[in-house]
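Thread title: Can someone regenerate the structure for this chain?

I was given the following input by a collaborator and told the matching structure tokens would be attached. They weren't. Posting the sequence so someone can regenerate them.
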Amino acid sequence: MTRFLRITLLIIGIYLIFIGVLYALAPSPAESLLQISLPDRATAMIHGTTDLAIAFLCLATAVRGQIRKGEYQFLLLFGILHVLTFALILLLDIYTTAQGLPPTIIWTVLTILLALGGSKQKLSI
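Best answer:
Regenerated them for you:
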């Protein structure tokens, strides 16, 4: 695994831990900090635990120092779907630009970094 990909996975993991803990354990502070309204607390908890699971995969892969092809494809697909989801939320005016643009930009940058890091190495099966 390249150093670039390892650092990218660590950044994604740390970001997802932050967001996951906020959604899963503290939805009210998450609303005020992220300036969003969560219509359903149960959905926020599910979103938070999913983010924590993906964060664990990112961190475990970065610490292990090698990534399998399936893990890489899963993480890349996860990033692409987040970008598309936040872009759709913006297009449908579900969130304001101030609410939806930052996560869209963050996920776009992280997904591009992940794609660039994975394209520079051979992935094992």
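The chain has a mean pLDDT of 84.
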